[in-house]
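Subgroup meeting minutes
Present: P.N., E.W., G.H.
Scribe: E.W.

1. P.N. recapped why we're keeping a running log of single-chain structure predictions: easier to compare across weeks, and new members can see raw inputs and outputs side by side.
2. G.H. added today's entry (98 aa).
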Amino acid sequence: MMETHPYALRMQQEFIRDVEPANPEYLVIVNVNMSWPRKPSSPTLLFDWYPSFAAERYTSVGVADIRPDQTIYRWGPGRGFLPPAVLGHRDHLPAEGR
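Output recorded in log:
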């Protein structure tokens, strides 16, 4: 969906059309550059759509901070933890649930 080709924007639109009515119980956001390798010419519809979609329907319930030497899990209220990768990217939130 992020590659430069004629169908990238259409694929993002179809993804949104599939996700919104499905109203999934959980969203798992993977904030890893290799998962969403954006190029300067990549459509940004998903990244423009996601913040308001998530804010209207979900609250953060956990974070898995994957580091080279360990993974730190924080779940539930009061976890008071956001991994460094998330702090600088407000448009990518940790795992969320309704």
